[in-house]
Design goal:
The chain is an all-alpha fold and 302 residues long. The chain contains 15 helices and no strands. Bound molecules: protoporphyrin IX containing FE and farnesyl diphosphate. Protoporphyrin IX containing FE is lined by residues 30-31, 34-35, 38, 87, 141, 153, 156-157, 160, 186, 190, 193-194, 197, 285, 288. Its main location: membrane.
Length: 302
């Protein structure tokens, strides 16, 4: 093989690799990873016995593929908005590295595989609930609510909050109140998670004409809402302990995490500097992760 052909082959290979990564990026992998953690916790907390490895794996594959599909559809629907915002203007579709058609075929394919895996390998209830979450995020939130009302993320947050219930139904084939309390935790966590970022990126959303709360109601009002939702979250996190799902170990760990979250929200409201909102957003992700790890530890050890 002469040098020119070799270089051409290497360039081709590099193109293929970056293309693969573009599709991977469409699935919002870090968000899906945290979603899967909350689903695993739902599965493991649902019964005293460990679920079989096949139920665990098939459920994770199905929920992961449908979540990734929802994220890819979000990239397609939002391509014009993403092009305007500094945070998102390098995304694969905006840059033309993936076409709308390719992204929709990809979303359709992984979504279909995910649904079939859940329907045939787990149970129809889980398959339909996960599909409903996909529609909730990719269609109801992204296509309508996001552009229509500053309460977009509060209502749309229900789709992202569903995974502990999806994990739960994977194992039990039924909807239990304990599982709904885990959903309620993520539902209440979403506003402080997102509005902290929206405060940091307010100009982006204003430029893209998206009615996020800091744009429509101002930063001061949004900070008050962040503080109130953080206090509400602290109360909501007590409910699984009151219901007897977890012991005092969960309660102590989660209350400590919530006190730190309140500290961020208080600083954001009363003593913010330029970094506070983004720091709170980053902490929100670790907060949710550790809350769900605390549930697991509590369930198995105490
Ligand atoms: C409607 C509900 C939600 C909204 C509006 C929202 C919004 C966002 C936004 C705008 C980002 C920034 C992404 C970026 O930097 O490109 C983000 C990041 C993130 N979100 Fe959310 N989120 C929601 C729900 C969730 C849920 C349910 C989870 C997981 C259970 C989650 C986990 C994460 C993670 C892990 C990141 C960091 C991603 C990264 O660094 O690449 N979010 N979220
Ligand atoms: C099956 C199932 C559980 C589906 C839903 C799961 C899912 C992918 C939730 C994602 C939540 C999220 C990152 C919202 C931000 O969208 P955005 O458009 O406001 O943010 P962006 O500007 O970063 O795209």
């Amino acid at each position: 093989m002469n040098d020119k052909v070799l270089l051409g082959t290497l360039a081709q290979a590099r193109f293929c690799i970056s293309h693969w990564r573009d599709f991977y990026e469409l699935t919002k992998p870090k968000v899906v990873a945290l979603i899967l953690l909350t689903a695993v916790v739902g599965m493991l907390v649902a019964s005293e016995q460990l679920p079989s490895l096949s139920v665990l794996l098939l459920s994770l594959i199905g929920i992961g593929l449908l979540s990734g599909s929802a994220a890819a559809i979000n990239h397609v629907v939002d391509a014009k908005v993403d092009a305007v915002m500094a945070r998102t203007h390098c995304r694969p579709i905006v840059r033309g590295r993936v076409s709308h058609l390719q992204a929709m075929l990809f979303a359709g394919l992984i979504g279909l595989v995910g649904f079939v895996v859940l329907y045939s390998g787990i149970n129809p209830l889980t398959a339909y609930l996960t599909l409903a979450s996909l529609v909730g995020y990719a269609v109801i939130y992204t296509l309508f609510l996001k552009r229509a009302t500053p309460q977009n993320i509060v209502i749309g947050g229900l789709a992202g909050a569903m995974p502990p219930l999806l994990g739960w139904t994977s194992v039990t084939n039924s909807i239990a109140p304990d599982a709904l309390l885990l959903v309620l935790i993520i539902f209440t966590w979403t506003p402080p998670h997102f509005w902290a970022l929206a405060i940091h990126r307010k100009n982006d959303y204003a430029k893209a004409n998206i009615p996020m709360l800091p744009v429509t109601h101002g930063v001061a009002f949004t900070k008050t809402m962040v503080l109130l939702y953080t206090l509400l979250l602290t109360a909501v996190c007590v409910l699984p302990w009151l219901a007897g799902t977890f012991s005092y170990v969960y309660l102590v760990v989660v209350t400590l995490l919530n006190l730190r979250f309140i500290q961020y929200a208080y600083k954001l409201k009363f003593h913010a500097n330029d970094d506070t909102a983004f720091a709170m957003f980053k902490f929100s992700i670790w907060h949710l992760l550790w809350v769900f790890v605390a549930m697991l530890v509590d369930h198995f050890i105490f």
